[in-house]
Amino acid sequence: MDKYLFQEFYQQHKKSVFAIVNLRLPDLEDAKDVVQEIFLELWLKRDTLADIRDIQPYLYVVARNQVISAFRRKNIQLKNEGLLLEGLNTLDYSAEENTMARELHQQINVIVEKLPETTRQCYQLSKHEGKKNREIADMLNISEKTVRNNISEALKRLRLTLKESHPEIFALFLFFIK
């Protein structure tokens, strides 16, 4: 891919990549830095981009990995689903991005509601309320291992169900659960 094709690629995808990154990094400057790192990485791997059949899920994975790296570098604690919901209300997204995020949230809620009660409670207390496993174990009068197993089971069911029923939003889900 030459310089001009890459510039076109950059113009086409910069807003969606920024929206993904900014969901996890609400600080504008941090988000811009990570987006710059993403496109630098893509530039360095530009010859392999043509081999990728569906670029959007690939961009989600690259963005997720760069955000994780940024958190590791700065030792910032991740905020789980709450940031996604807050971001929907405060960030300027394209109609497609808004639709995907809303659909993801709706699908997660539908799947979570079908989980067994203890599994659902463990997942919601962990991911929605940010409770630690020890706190959840004390609240539900179960062991920490049971809490971990229930959260793991909930995430497994979410992954499998979304992958089968909504492959188009599965990559977005992967970005948010990490």
TrEMBL record:
Residues 9-75 form the RNA polymerase sigma-70 region domain. Coiled coil: none annotated. Pfam families: Sigma70_r2, Sigma70_r4_2. One of its GO terms (biological process) is DNA-templated transcription initiation. The keyword Lipoprotein does not apply. Belongs to the sigma-70 factor family. ECF subfamily. This is RNA polymerase sigma-70 factor (ECF subfamily).
